[in-house]
Amino acid sequence: MKKTIAIIFGGFSEERVISEKSAAVVQKHLSPSKYQCYLVDIDKDHWSVVHQNELLPIDKNDFTFDLEGNKVKFDAVFNAIHGTPGEDGKIQGYFDVLGIPYNNCGVLASALTFNKAACNRYLSPSGVLVAESFLARIGEPIDAESIVDRVGLPCFVKPVEEGSSIGVSKVKDKSQLVKAIHKAQSVGVDALVERFLDGVEVSCGCIMLNGNIQAIGVTEIVPANEFFDFDSKYNNTETQEITPARIDEDANDRVMLLTEEIYHWLHAKGMIRADYMICGDDIYLIEVNTTPGLSEASIIPQQAIHFGMSLEEFFDNELNVLF
Length: 323
Known about the structure:
Elements: E1 3-10, H1 16-29, E2 35-42, E3 47-51, E4 54-59, E5 64-67, E6 70-73, E7 76-79, H2 90-98, H3 107-114, H4 116-123, E8 129-130, E9 133-136, H5 144-151, E10 155-159, E11 169-171, H6 177-185, E12 191-195, E13 200-209, E14 212-222, H7 230-234, E15 240-242, H8 249-265, E16 272-279, E17 282-289, H9 299-307, H10 311-320
Parallel strand pairs: 1-2, 1-7, 8-17
Antiparallel strand pairs: 2-3, 3-4, 4-5, 5-6, 9-12, 10-11, 10-12, 13-14, 13-16, 14-15, 16-17
């Protein structure tokens, strides 16, 4: 019997448009012989099933909907929401209460990794290298002089809880710092100021495969712009995402192993993607994504294909572990 799957997308952040593309790819590649899939739009104002050009309201009491007089229940959820509430643990808690399984990380791992500063503090004692940083909290005075003394110039300023490089600035002069912090804080969260790392940027995907934690590939990122910002990620065709990365075998193996260790330390589930900067012999963690982009041009799908999995096999693996 087919399993009824909700592919949730949308969310409450600027990443909504990316989420919609991810969900469409998941729906395209999940086997229709095994799954009855419905796209479910999660928005602040409505939760709706997108069905034959109609929006059918979700009953939030039990996450069901009415289809031609019949109540449809979901066997599982495939989460394709980037940003809140799909990547920060909020919607995971909702599904936990209802007892509906979902493919990605649980509440704790999702909330922890969504907050970049908290994730760095959690992983650092295990030997994970992270850039020197300063957390600029909303409402607190900004001492640009002391921040620059700590992290140096240039530096990056980013919202502590946001994805797709939204609100990120590269600051080259101390006079730009306060403005950059306010820009990052404008999305409603604290700002993280980090030391600039000069090296090779790479990204590594990791999944659970046949009961084992498995890194699936390392991708080198060569942004079209000065750094891997929103435009470089989604708009500029000159950005290069090279799989496998053009790094030596030892560095590749170390990135793969570190990603598997991070997956274990976080008690992760489903797929994650960890981003790094390789500086000489050192590998610095940039961030961990628990709901990475899933368009056919995105990094994780590229790595899955390089690993030898079709996208149908890759997405099916995400759900297989739930049943």
